[in-house]
Design goal:
Layout (H helix, E strand, L loop, with lengths): L1 H38 L2 E10 L6 E6 L4 E4 L18 E4 L5 E6 L2 E6 L15
Antiparallel strand pairs: 1-2, 1-4, 2-3, 4-5, 5-6
């Protein structure tokens, strides 16, 4: 019986350590993605927004008027903007911001991109 309890304690401890380390790595990774997203500029028209069949990554192809570009901006993004995008949507995300805009049939929509890290998000100042 003691062997069973020791095994259970060992696995519980192992699981706890893994959970703590995973959350630290994830937070760091998500903050890096937030920082990259803030520094990315997107201005164009969606050609395709689809999940990669191999790794289920969210990939968007868009035209900026000159080139066809791809963006991985939505891989770990949580606000679900990606699922709303359609081919033909005009899109805009300014460098230095997490605000994402898209226009479809004359209707403008907006969402703030969310990666689970608020370290880089400017706090709203209330006067």
């Amino acid at each position: 019986m003691k062997f069973g309890i020791k095994n259970m304690l060992f696995y519980f401890l192992l699981f706890s350590i893994h959970a703590v380390c995973y959350s630290c790595v994830s937070k760091s990774s998500l903050c890096e993605e937030t920082s990259r997203a803030i520094n990315e500029k997107i201005d164009g028209v969606v050609i395709d927004a689809s999940l990669n069949e191999f790794n289920h990554a969210k990939i968007m192809l868009y035209s900026n008027g000159y080139d066809t570009l791809s963006s991985w901006l939505f891989v770990n993004e949580r606000s679900h903007v990606f699922s709303q995008l359609q081919a033909g949507d005009s899109i805009l995300k300014r460098k230095g911001s997490l605000d994402f805009y898209w226009i479809r049939d004359g209707n403008k929509s907006y969402e703030r991109l969310d990666y689970g890290c608020n370290d880089h998000v400017k706090k709203r100042v209330v006067n």
